[in-house]
Amino acid sequence: MIDSPNNQWKTLDKDLGRVGHLEYAAHYVARPMVGIGISLVFIILTGFGAMIFFGQQPVSFVVVAAAVFGAYMAINIGANDVANNMGPAVGANALSMGGAILIAAIFESAGALLAGGDVVSTIAKGIVDPAGFADTQVFIWAMMAALISAALWVNLATFIGAPVSTTHSVVGGVMGAGIAAAGFAAVNWPTMAKIAASWVISPIMGGVIAAGFLWLIKSKIIYQDDKIAAARKWVPILIAIMAAVFTSYLATKGLKKIVRIDIPTSLLIGLGIGILSYFVTRPIIKRQSRGLENRNKSLKVLFMIPLVFSAALLSFAHGANDVANAVGPLAAIVHAVEFGSTAAKVSIPSWVMVIGALGISFGLFLFGPKLIRMVGGQITKLNPMRAYCVALSAAITVIIASWLGLPVSSTHIAVGAVFGVGFFREWHMERRIRLNLKTPKEGREIARSERSRRKLVRRSHFMTIAAAWVITVPAAALLSGGIFLLINAVFV
Predict the structure, then answer these.
(1) What CA–CA distance (Å, rounded) separates 280 from 218?
(2) Which residues contact 291 (CB under 8 A, 6 or more apart)?
(3) ∠ at Cα 120 (115, 121), nearest 5°?
């Protein structure tokens, strides 16, 4: 029996549909491979570049390997750490994903190349003493193991969607390799105790400060009868605070290469810039607020531009400081190979800084959106006011921690601020309900059983991130110790 033309067309449509589904599936599966492929090309080119610089030396393979792993670490920093700066702005719809990635790539690279410290502690803030190693070769293998373990751990954390501290990953790697190479006595345990304390102090401090500013915005602007008039008064003050804080932050942490500024001086500079910003932005906010309706949605417009500026400044400061996490151990290895000796502090060659800056940008562009979406929208819902509180809290907390001498993590602070905003919203909602206020949309009381389900912070993300923070240092240390023993067994 011969099929009719209609049946033939139906059969053809089904076959074409199957082919279309197959092509879509192949494209979906291949999409992650593009990022991996580009990353491998960058890593290989980095290795060739290091070979050109050190190709005439018999130990050049050590520097080449270190450069390769340094590039790998930089990519992972871009994929994981930069989400803390851009996530709130993207989650608040102040920036698109493409715009956030472009701004972050530019300012991260600028911070690393223009303001990155030309002298850094290559052994992660004094965790181990180079003099405690038996010889230079053992120190080189220890730094190599620390670099590899930190990169692998940050890569794993990015894969499971947990924003972890790359600084603490490096610290754990150096500690583990130091113990494996020179015993427990090689580790500076008082410094490690400070770092452990910062695991708890920095996210709580960031969360409390962010919640405090959100309470201020709610009480002084959002819950006022005339919201626009309140915004005209308070938004210039908030922008002035932001300008003062970020000026002090950048003066303290981001200008090491140009000039050394102590904290009291940076605070005075910040105060001057804050006062100037108030008088500059006051007429601008007044002009922007003309014609706006007296509702919360109108207020978001006034916080958009300050939020974009804060994200850019955070990225600049992050590039100036955290690029050392990628290239610090690499710089230590290069110094040890060149001079045949170890040192607690060494100058970072320009080509090493370029590896860090480019690696962070590549990692952000190729793999950053996953963590940006998670920090910006999946922990708790952010709008421009809430995201502004997160960014401002991050800068204030870093300044306070620097004054107290605490080795804090920008990741812990920023994510802790996001949690702080979310938990404050939960507490505030519960408080209003207990005062027998009704929900504006439903106009009815909410039962306790129903309230228990209305959580504004995703508990699954909270538990995953908290667990990742707790185990970062020990996990990186164990991994680093194992890698050191393996390298030592193979090459010694």
Answers:
(1) 24
(2) none
(3) 155
